[in-house]
Design a protein that fits this description.
- Strand 5, helix 6 and strand 6 form a beta-alpha-beta unit.
- The strands form nine sheets. Strands 1-4-5-6-7-9-12-13 form an eight-stranded parallel beta barrel, surrounded by seven helices.
- By secondary structure, it is of the alpha/beta class.
- It has 23 helices and 30 strands.
- Helix 7 runs antiparallel to helix 8.
- It folds into two domains: 432 residues, TIM Barrel, CATH 3.20.20; 266 residues, 3-Layer(aba) Sandwich (Rossmann fold).
């Protein structure tokens, strides 16, 4: 066996590392309800998705042919229409599917993970799949069997909601037996069919007093592969535990006598896959405390004690040393900011390239969640619509390529990709990631290239400072420029500053912001808002530099009767709105690839220059406050705005975008809710009317990227850093 594998390795390492793709396709049962990620991300209704994947250059795709969706009601009833069309199209496009038959599921309603008949029933489905699609030669009958068994039968999250180790082992055995019988059935039809067996793999670390628990979990992580490879015999440390679970010696001999070793071991490794155990619970945030166990279980990246021991390279090396079988990374995904998504993909790719160069038979890295995923932050237990984008962002209805799409296309074609954000550190490497301060300095990974920087204008304004703060938090090097350093309405000043700083992108957060004074200072307002935005646009267009500038909801008159979307006709009523409308026209004429962000009614946690702070300050002082109940807006939480703008910039999005927190309310309703949340007496709050109802709230036909107003408002009261009774300083003009 080893000589065969070594020969295979010698051949494989001469080949280029491949980029595979994967679609989050979980169909999971929770109590009596099913969740289907293919439907929730919209892929179920978009045949054209497959062409978008092909355009990236991806030639191998993990794709669902799920039992629950084909025979949901009876094993003898099957509906193949959806799969027939899509698998035929994949074949036309030259994409080889890795057919997944059960993905974090427990099977259709007539069976479950503890059903002794589950293996034979899945094998029957597998044979039907093979006969219907004989050209498919790679299969994953059960995705992540150990992870699924843990979540379904040890932690009780998913059906059948059991909560003990012995039941978990029974579920795992049934899944692995189902895998072996399925491959046996498939190979009757397709003798050369290959098993691509996936599993989430991390490692558990601890202090010496919990070494026994860490060792237990580190032995447990191999169980699915050990079963399939026929390694669980009387000498295996978990053999007796399987026997206690009611799994007989003859049942275990099923694998030792006829192993079903994977043709490719698929490793799904996440930043959160590695854990650290610590009895000192009070050293960690309260959400990690539990009465169930006498220690906390946290992400290993959040503690300084395992520096250098974590990460994909270390885990992939362990897999190779243990099994000496071909490997692929079958899921590479990270939720969060776009820069961190790119950094994580880059780290995994580089780890695979390095190991391949050392002779490890590693075949591919799979860019996962091509169309994103929904509610995985709660393991699908909460139906809150929390969306993590992937290679494409589907929140606009039609998939929009993100920076990950550009990375994927480059990896598929050239085996490498680059972006200026790779000069920074992912959050799992940054010093501020720790739950507790390290007792001694921890050396951060070194950045090889010199930093490539952003330029942000508006150094003294709310938005400029917020963008700078968020850039620092996201390890995006930048220069925040004041008017003295670059006058955006002066061509010579702009060109000199851009030559001096040589940014990879420019964000224009400068401009005239005093709406009430704009009529009196119309010339200055037009110069700073329209002329300045245009001058910067022309300079960036000339240099080929991505460019972002900001507009306002006040480019609309509020008479439409609903929230405005990007394609609605401009209709400003005031000088300020006119200046922003003119800026939009000039910028798009000068630089069609520019990004123009319309937004509305800022409030934020880091300064006092916003409506919420002003209202709360006045009410706290017992002063009368008037607020209009006629004008309705979409309040925008500045940190959310800054994050979304940076993501769009990194994606090279262009054109007009509306970015505001979802929802609309009047200024009076805004003030009333602020008072209620702050537990202040609102009796001094006075509702005013005049001028008729006006709605300048913003929605989007391109994608609702910001969370709801309620979600943002809750976070404002947790994150606010400015006391409401602080003396207001004179507001600086950006």
């Amino acid at each position: 066996m080893n000589s065969i594998n070594n020969n295979t390795s010698d051949v494989s390492t001469q080949q280029t590392l491949e980029l595979w793709g994967g679609i989050e396709c979980t169909v999971v049962r929770i109590q009596d309800q099913y969740r289907n990620q293919i439907k929730e991300t919209g892929h179920a209704d978009r045949m054209e998705d497959l062409d978008a994947i092909a355009a990236l250059g991806i030639k191998t795709l993990r794709y669902p042919v799920l039992w629950e969706t084909i025979s949901p009601d009876h094993p003898d009833q099957a509906e193949w229409g959806w799969h027939d069309k899509r698998l035929a199209r994949l074949r036309e496009l030259g994409i080889a599917p890795i057919a997944g038959l059960v993905h974090h599921g427990s099977g259709p309603r007539y069976t479950n993970l503890l059903d002794p008949n589950f293996p034979q029933m899945l094998a029957r489905h597998a044979e039907r799949v093979a006969r219907r699609y004989p050209w498919i030669d790679m299969f994953t009958p059960v995705n992540e069997p150990l992870t699924t068994a843990r979540f379904s039968a040890l932690y009780g999250h998913w059906y059948p909601h059991a909560r003990d180790t012995l039941t978990m082992l029974r579920a795992l055995y049934i899944e692995c037996r189902a895998t072996a019988l399925s491959m046996e059935a498939i190979r009757k039809v397709t003798p050369h069919a290959r098993l691509v067996q996936t599993e989430d793999l991390g490692k558990t670390f601890s202090f010496p007093d919990l070494k026994h628990q860490a060792d237990y979990e580190n032995e447990r992580r191999w169980l699915s592969f050990d079963l399939l490879c026929g390694r669980i015999d009387a000498r295996h440390p978990w053999y007796d535990t399987f026997i206690k679970a009611g799994i007989g010696k003859s049942e275990l001999a099923f694998f030792t006598e006829q192993p079903c070793a994977p043709d490719i071991i698929g490793i799904n490794h996440y930043v959160t896959s590695e854990r650290f155990l610590d009895r000192r619970a009070r050293e960690y945030p309260p959400e990690f405390w539990t009465d169930a166990v006498p220690y906390v279980d946290v992400h290993a990246t959040r503690v300084p004690y395992v520096e250098g021991l974590t990460g994909p390279e270390a885990r992939l090396r362990e897999v190779w040393e243990r099994y000496r079988l071909p490997i692929a990374v079958t899921e590479a995904h990270l939720g969060g900011s776009r820069d961190d998504q790119l950094r994580w993909l880059n780290q995994i790719w580089k780890a695979a390239v390095k190991l391949k160069g050392e002779g490890v038979d590693i075949r591919a890295v799979t860019i996962w969640s091509i169309f994103g995923c929904v509610d995985w932050n709660s393991l699908l237990l909460q139906n809150s619509g929390f969306y993590e984008s992937g290679v494409f962002d589907v929140r606009g209805g039609q998939p929009r390529p993100t920076a990950l799409a550009h990375a994927a296309a480059s990896l598929a074609k050239n085996g490498e990709f680059d972006h200026p954000v790779l000069d920074g550190l992912g959050w799992w490497h940054r010093p501020d990631r720790y739950f507790q301060r390290p007792s001694q300095a921890v050396e951060a990974p070194q950045i090889i290239r010199s930093d490539r920087r952003l330029v942000i204008t508006g150094a003294r304004g709310t938005l400029g400072q917020a963008l700078s703060r968020i850039c620092s938090a996201r390890s995006l090097e930048h220069d925040l420029l004041s008017r003295a350093e670059m006058d955006i309405a002066d061509q010579a000043s702009v060109e000199a500053a851009l030559m001096r700083h040589r940014p990879w992108a420019v964000i224009n957060a400068a401009g005239y912001v005093r709406v009430a004074d704009a009529h009196r200072e119309s010339e200055r307002c037009m110069r700073e808002n329209a002329m300045g935005a245009e001058v910067l646009a022309k300079a960036c267009a000339k240099l080929g530099i991505p460019y972002v500038t900001f507009s306002s909801d006040l480019v609309f008159d509020g008479k439409l009767g609903r929230a405005y979307v990007e394609s609605d006709k401009l209709s400003p009523l005031c000088v300020y709105g006119n200046s922003k409308a003119e800026a939009e026209r000039r910028v798009m004429a000068a630089f069609p690839d520019a990004l123009v962000v319309r937004t509305s009614a800022f409030f934020g946690p880091w300064d006092r220059y916003n409506f919420v702070h002003a209202i709360l300050r006045e009410l706290a002082a017992g002063r009368r406050v008037e607020a209009s109940d006629d004008a309705h807006v979409s309040p925008t939480y500045v940190p959310d705005l800054a994050h979304a703008v940076l993501d769009l910039l990194i994606d090279r999005a262009n054109g007009i975008w509306h970015l505001a927190n979802q929802g609309a309310l009047s200024w009076y309703e805004f003030a009333e809710r602020a008072a209620r949340e702050a537990r202040l007496d609102a009796s001094a709050l006075v509702k005013t009317h005049g001028g008729g109802r006006s709605i300048t709230a913003l929605s989007s036909e391109r994608g609702l990227l910001l969370p709801t107003f309620g979600n943002a408002f809750d976070r404002y009261f947790r994150e606010n850093t400015i006391a409401w009774d602080a003396d207001p300083a004179e507001r600086a003009v950006a």
